[in-house]
Amino acid sequence: MNRKFIISGGGTGGHIFPALAIAGEIKKRDPGASILFVGALGRMEMERVPAAGYPIIGLPVEGLKRKFGFRNFIVLFKALLSLFKASGIIRTFKPDVVVGVGGYASGPLLRIAAFHNVPAIIQEQNSYAGVTNRLLARKAKKICVAYEGMEKYFPADKIVLTGNPIREELIAPQVNRATACSFFNISENKPVLLVLGGSLGARTINESLLGQVQTLEKENVQVLWQTGRLY
Questions:
Q1: Contact predicate 56/38, CB 8 Å
Q2: Pairing label, strands 142-145, 97-100
Q3: What is the pLDDT along the chain (231 residues), one digit of tens a residue?
Q4: In Å, what is the CA distance from 101 to each residue of 14, 60, 105, 130, 177?
């Protein structure tokens, strides 16, 4: 039986790449499965997901602003519009399961899925649960977590300790050190420090590393430093 899945969420690579790993595993187990992504318009997933070969629909949802003002009225209007659009997606696509990986788009999509009695699964990548996933926990059938002790955020009877989904090409890479060093134009004979920032912690990581660049150069350490657009 070829089942239908919706995977919703995004905003950062920490949400998007586990979502793509889940999609890859679904296709591996059920090659005929239909997978639709639902993200937030203007966010990173609207580029990354199509590049990976999956269709995506964007919702106009965005987060509330910390400072109360007129902008939050627009945010609330967009939230209502997103709920309406999510309802149309559920009715049209008719998914068997909906998976939320965190991020703005997960909220309206999983709420509407639960309203239509579609099984909703949450995948939480962090040891500190995100706001969206905490709010959705009551609606979820199961909550897949990467760390122990998540009962402080979610109902214990819904938690499944799965670890974080990892894309298969990262588990069994076909690239050796020599090829990688050639690609990045660095020496095979010097130590390499790989720095990966993510989400809200990226700025602190990047600023800390910036202050140590000269020290690393003196120690003959090569740095591969991944940054996002904002930080």
A1: yes
A2: unpaired
A3: 689 999 999 888 888 999 999 999 999 999 999 999 999 998 889 999 999 999 999 999 887 666 666 677 788 888 899 999 999 999 999 999 999 998 888 999 999 999 999 999 999 998 988 888 898 898 899 999 999 999 999 999 999 999 999 888 777 767 888 999 999 999 999 999 999 876 667 888 888 888 888 898 888 999 998 887 776
A4: 9, 18, 9, 10, 32
Can you read off the two tokens belonging to residue 174? 């076909």
The residues spanned by each domain of the chain are 4-169, 175-226
- Between the alpha carbon of residue 35 and those of residues 56, 68, 99, the distances in Å are 9, 38, 11
Fold (CATH) for 4-169: Rossmann fold (3.40.50)
Handedness of CA 201, 199, 109, 53 (dihedral sign): negative
> Cβ contacts of residue 80 below 8 Å, gap of 6+?
none
* The pair of three-digit structure tokens given for residue 179, joined into one six-digit string: 């090829």
Q: What CA–CA distance (Å, rounded) separates 120 from 111?
A: 9
Contact 177, 194 (CB under 8 A): no
Distance CA 112, CA 173 (A): 39
Alpha carbon distance 144, 156 (integer Å): 11
